[in-house]
Design goal:
The structure is a homodimer of 135-residue chains. With 135 residues, the first copy, chain A, is mainly alpha-helical. Helices cover 69% and strands 4% of the residues of chain A. The structure holds a DNA duplex (30 and 30 nucleotides). Chains A, B: It comes from Asticcacaulis benevestitus DSM 16100 = ATCC BAA-896.
DNA sequence: CATAATCTTTACGTTGACGTCAATGTAAAG
DNA sequence: CTTTACATTGACGTCAACGTAAAGATTATG
């Protein structure tokens, strides 16, 4: 194992190229409190942790969550408090989020099913059409 | 079986209450060409088909698609042309859509997995905390 | 050293998806 | 027939999520 991995930092360009988002978007996410890269003087230095958070942000976006919702989800990923009551509350949020995701998964599966059936029907039609044409 | 089912129509209020969207939204969707209810004079009359389309629209929204994307998806649901070439093209779109949905499903499953692991960890922490407290 | 390439902040512009308000129409109830 | 309730079409407002352009600071390169 090399030592290089955990302490690597990324420039704003590197990250924006890697994930195909604009630098503007990254600064915007920072503005909204979703990421907080360090600074070397003026310029931003993104850590591996920042990079991971960005991945979560983008996944959230692909799933149709707003930046505010994503912010709340990110909060679930950042361990902070240690009171039992707080931990129970956090646990409840986790579970709520899981329920949300499961409902979404059902939507997706219904959509996939619909589309797959449409495929079958269409393939069938095409075959019939071809059979007709060859007579 | 009763005869009442297929020919029922819905007012804009009925639909908006049933699906918990505003009348404004329904008119907006119409403006964008997503639904086309008939008119009795001025007022809109939504058919069972319109209702079904609305369900698809809302599902699309829950999955994070834009109205434009939803419009394209709705097009896939409305059979229209009969040329073999067109049907092949449509089939390709179906398949593309399925791929999109499958990628989304993978995102969701990853998210669910993350959250579930977080749950386990949290439950563990809470148990340890309680064990400590009882000594 | 000059200049080009990147970075920064500030600020205004844009697009999507509606909300809200005004002015008006119409249909059922009392 | 008047009131009450819900319908319609504009037109403008709003919020999120960036895009874009301006102007300056810093770093890299010939």
């Amino acid at each position: 194992m090399e030592t290089i991995h955990k302490d690597r930092t990324y420039s704003i360009r590197q990250l924006s190229k890697e994930f195909d988002v604009t630098a503007r978007a990254l600064r915007f996410y920072e503005d909204k409190g979703l990421i907080s890269p360090e600074r070397k003087g003026q310029t931003r230095l993104y850590s591996a942790r920042d990079r991971a958070r960005l991945q979560l942000i983008l996944r959230g976006k692909r799933l149709g969550f707003s930046l505010i919702e994503i912010h709340e989800i990110l909060d679930l990923y950042t361990p902070k408090d240690h009171g039992t009551a707080q931990m129970r509350a956090t646990l409840a949020k986790y579970r709520g989020q899981i329920e949300t995701l499961k409902r979404q998964r059902e939507d997706i599966e219904a959509a996939i099913k619909d589309m797959a059936e449409g495929c079958v029907w269409l393939e069938d039609q095409i075959h019939q059409h071809e059979a007709e044409a060859s007579n």
